[in-house]
UniProtKB/TrEMBL annotation:
Organism: Paenibacillus germinis
Domain (HAMP): residue spans on this chain: 328-380
Subcellular locations according to the entry: Cell membrane
Gene3D superfamilies linked: 1.10.287.130, Histidine kinase-like ATPase, C-terminal domain, PAS domain
Membrane topology (UniProt): Multi-pass membrane protein
Coiled-coil ranges (or none): 354-381
Membrane-traversing stretches: 20-41, 306-328
InterPro entries: Bact_2-comp_sensor_kinase, dCache_1, HAMP_dom, HATPase_C_sf, HATPase_dom, Sig_transdc_His_kin_internal
UniProt protein name: HAMP domain-containing protein
Keyword annotations of the record: Cell membrane, Coiled coil, Kinase, Membrane, Phosphoprotein, Transferase, Transmembrane, Transmembrane helix
């Protein structure tokens, strides 16, 4: 089925509209319901994942805070150790043996600590000038000044407070293989616990094993590819993950997403869209961050994502089927009614449309049956009226040949016979015969203009025989208009009226007939140079044109009214006769008819 037939079916048929409206309403409703249901399910699932992730993050924060608290305790104990204080006091001692002794004591102290604390990579003691004084692991360059490094933080507050330094380079070892990239550290001043202040600001730098922090973070998996990371105070990742994850960590480091101590937000788009959940560590003020890919969150909804559209399609199919069945059931009485209407259209007016299948159809068919009965009655009355009208019209047509004209013509023939003008008698008899044959031929109501001209020419010739030198006539018409159609016998009453009333006082009159094509049809102008009419007479004649009585005795005025009424009844307004006249100038009768082509 093409688009045009489909459009016609759905927009022009009752059944099609019912199916279209039902389906449209239910499809919109089901679509909205499915969309809302799916969205609610997604919101519930997202909230559950969010709550679960926040719970995991809280557990991880506790574990990582515990880890950093151990580091804090260890650094505080070490920073207050008598061994480290004694060694610092001897750093200016010129006695090499004594100095080496204390350095050995520091080395043994650090060794014992590292033996039982695998989370610590090494310890460094930095003197008041920023250079290395002692270390527990690989050898640090003596020329490396820690105070000149942007990541190093000098501490001026309480000596028991431990500061954590974010990700920074460890490029201070002499051997390159010990420079393992970025590290994180804890730093605290070495103070004498028995002294309120110290003239020397010596620092204990504790480098932590990043892998230990990483292992704590990644003990729990989030979905298949979700993960947990720790960001320092500059939002830089403490340890490097995969390339894609590290790129995301770097993006978070360049933005200001973490405005509160905890929260969640979304970053990325498409397949790289992530739900980010974070909390702030109490020990370091760093962030524990969970990254959950939305693609894996959506994976939980794959089943419902397929079930919802399939369910919608199934429901739509059922709605369409139900709409078709309901529409067919409702449309069935209308189809029966249509079939009966076709029978009535074919002429079977005795068919009864009554159908009581539903109350509405019963009322409708009762009214249509009543209307058909009235139409039959009106048709019969109209047919009777048409017959009567045809009889009246025939009577009028026959009356167009004025009895006085026939009588006067026969008297003229008789006079010619007395004086022996046989040739003229023959011509007049022929002319009168042609006129009678034309007038009484009731099979033709519409003729060509040429036929009408021939008839009026016969009439004018007869009148010229009766009244020699009384008037002259002239007919102007194009060959094209001669073949056009016109109602029969519309010229003779007008010309006859001019001869009877216009030329009584004239020795020689003139009649002009002009046929012109105009925008509304054909205009026929019949002009006589008779005595004309006053304005009052013209108004009276114009008024009488609209009045018509077929039983009225024939006169010239009746003839004009007959022509006007016939044309107006046949073609409607503005067709018919209009008059114009001036006293002692003449009268013009204009007949306007439509141009209908050849008769």
């Amino acid at each position: 089925m093409g688009w045009a037939p489909m459009k016609t079916f759905f927009l022009r048929t009752f059944k099609g509209r019912m199916i279209l409206y039902y389906c449209t309403i239910f499809i919109i409703f089901i679509g909205l319901l499915g969309g809302v249901t799916y969205q609610l399910f997604m919101n519930v699932m997202t909230n559950q994942i969010l709550q679960y992730t926040e719970k995991i993050i809280e557990e991880k924060r506790s574990s990582i805070d515990s880890y950093f608290n151990q580091v804090v305790n260890l650094v505080q104990i070490s920073a207050g150790s008598q061994v480290l204080r004694d060694a610092i006091k001897q750093q200016d001692n010129q006695d090499i043996i004594s100095k080496l002794y204390y350095q050995r004591q520091v080395s043994d102290y650090f060794t014992n600590i590292l033996r039982f604390n695998s989370n610590i990579h090494d310890f460094l003691i930095i003197n008041e000038k920023g250079y290395i004084y002692a270390q527990s692991g690989a050898t640090v360059s003596n020329a490396y000044n820690f105070f000149d490094q942007p990541w190093f933080q000098k501490i001026t507050s309480n000596y028991f407070y431990v500061y954590f330094l974010g990700v920074h380079e460890n490029n201070y070892y002499i051997l390159e293989n010990n420079n393992e990239g970025n590290v994180v550290s804890a730093i605290a001043p070495i103070y004498d616990i028995n002294s309120v202040s110290s003239d020397r600001k010596v620092y204990l730098l504790c480098n932590m094993n990043v892998k230990g922090i990483e292992s704590i973070s990644n003990e729990t998996l989030l979905e298949k590819t979700g993960y947990i990371a720790i960001l320092d105070q500059n939002n830089n990742p403490i340890y490097k993950t995969t390339d894609a994850q590290f790129s995301l960590d770097s993006e978070l480091g360049r933005t200001n997403y973490f405005k509160q101590e905890s929260g969640n937000f979304t970053v990325g788009n498409g397949l790289k869209k992530y739900l980010i959940v974070y909390k702030t560590l109490k020990t370091t003020n760093w962030k524990v961050v969970a990254y959950i890919p939305y693609s894996e969150m959506y994976a939980h909804t794959d089943a419902i994502r397929y079930i919802v559209p399939i369910s919608i399609l199934v429901v739509i199919a059922l709605v369409v089927l139900a709409s078709i069945l309901i529409a067919a059931r409702i449309n069935k009485p209308l189809m029966r009614l249509t079939s009966k209407m076709y029978l009535i259209e074919g002429g079977h007016t005795d068919v009864q449309l009554f159908d009581d299948s539903t109350e509405e159809i019963e009322k409708l068919t009762r009214r249509i049956d009543s209307m058909i009965d009235k139409i039959k009655t009106l048709t019969e009355e109209n047919f009777s009226y048409i017959l009567q009208n045809k009889e009246s019209e025939l009577k009028i047509l026959l009356s167009q040949i004025n009895p006085h004209f026939l009588n006067n013509t026969l008297q003229s023939i008789k006079a010619m016979a007395v004086i022996g003008k046989t040739g003229e008698i023959s011509r007049m008899v022929t002319l009168i015969g042609n006129m009678l044959r034309y007038a009484i031929n009731s099979f033709q109501d519409v003729v060509t203009i040429q036929d009408e001209i021939d008839h009026i020419t016969n009439y004018l010739k007869i009148q010229n025989y009766r009244y020699p030198e009384k008037f002259k006539y002239d007919i102007v018409i194009s060959d094209e208009l001669r073949r056009s159609s016109t109602p029969k016998l519309i010229l003779q009453p007008v010309v006859e009226n001019a001869i009877l009333h216009a030329f009584q006082q004239l020795q020689e009159g003139r009649i002009e007939l002009n046929f012109d094509a105009v925008s509304q049809g054909i205009r026929i102008t019949i002009f006589d140079n008779g005595r004309g009419m006053t304005s009052v007479e013209l108004e009276n004649v114009s008024e009488k044109l609209s009045k018509f009585d077929p039983d009225e005795e024939y006169t010239g005025g009746v003839g004009l009214r007959n022509v006007h009424q016939r044309i107006r009844n046949k073609y409607g307004y503005p067709y018919g006769i209009t008059l114009s006249s001036e006293i002692n100038i003449g009268t013009s009768v204009t007949i306007l008819i439509p141009r209908l082509g050849d008769a």
